[in-house]
Amino acid sequence: MTEPDFEKGGGLAVAIAQDYRSGEVLMQAFINADAWQETLSTGRAVYWSRSRRQLWRKGETSGNVQIVHEVLIDCDNDSVIYKVEQIGGAACHTGHRSCFFRRVTPDGETAEISKPVFEPEKVYGKK
Amino acid sequence: MTEPDFEKGGGLAVAIAQDYRSGEVLMQAFINADAWQETLSTGRAVYWSRSRRQLWRKGETSGNVQIVHEVLIDCDNDSVIYKVEQIGGAACHTGHRSCFFRRVTPDGETAEISKPVFEPEKVYGKK
Asked: What pLDDT was estimated at residue A61?
C-alpha cells in the first residue's frame, strides 16, 4: 500500500491535474492525507486549499468536477498526477481550460496563449 | 514583468517539467528565485533541492540536462511548467523516462507502467 509522503511538505504533497486524453496540465494544487483518501475512494479530485485551509472538492461550487481516470505517483512519493476528465471544459477559475494559460519569455514578460472557454461570472456568480 | 510568488510556499514555488513534444509530465520539483532566474537566463532547467538545500542544475552529474523550450505560469503565480527536451531520454534517477512511472489503484496498490530507459548505475556511477 503506497501513500504519498506528506511529512516532507509539512503535511502536504503536490498534485498535478492532467487531462486524461490530451495530456494538457490543467492545474496544480496540494493534497493532504484526507484529500488523497477521498480522491481515491470517490474518483473525484479533492485538494487541500492552502488559502482557505480546508478540503477543496473541485467543482463543488461550479459543478465542474474532475473525474479521476488514473492516479500516478512519483519516485519519491511526494507528488501525484491525477489524470482527469474536466467537466465543464475548464479547470481555472478565470474560465481558461488550464490555469497555465500564460507563457513567460526569458525577460519575464507574459502573454496569454489561450482564451477563456467560459465566463467566470456565469459559472461562479461573481468575478 | 511576472515572477512566481515564492512567499506563499516559504520561498519556493512548484515547477513541473513536461516533455515539450508529447506533453508527458517528466518530474515535479521546486524552484526558488535563483533557480527561476537561472532557468530563464540559461534555457536549462534549474531547481532547488529541498533535501540537499542547494541549487539543482538538472543533468549536472549525468549530462542529462533539460533544454527549456517554453515556460508557463499559472493563474495565481505559484506554479510553473517547464516544457523541456530531456537529453538522455530519462528524467528520473531510477532510469525511467518520467518520475511518475507508477499507477496507484483505488485501494492504494501500485504497479509500474513503464520500464527504465537506462541503467542508473551506468549514468550516475552508483545505484
From this structure: 86
Nearest to A75 among B16, B73, B94 (CB): B94
Architecture of domain B7-93: Roll (3.10)
List of chain B residues whose C-beta atoms are within 8 Å of the C-beta of residue A103: 70-72
CB–CB of A102 and B25 under 8 A? Answer: no
Average pLDDT, chain A: 94
Cα A35 to Cα A31: distance, rounded to the nearest angstrom = 5
pTM of the model: 0.94
Contact between B123 and B95 under an 8 Å Cβ cutoff? The reply is yes
Residues of A in contact with B79 (CB under 8 A): 28, 99-100
Domain A7-124 in this protein, CATH class: alpha beta
ipTM field: 0.94
Domain ranges across chain B: 7-93
Name the 3-class secondary structure at A49. strand
Q: Percent of chain A beyond pLDDT 70?
A: 98
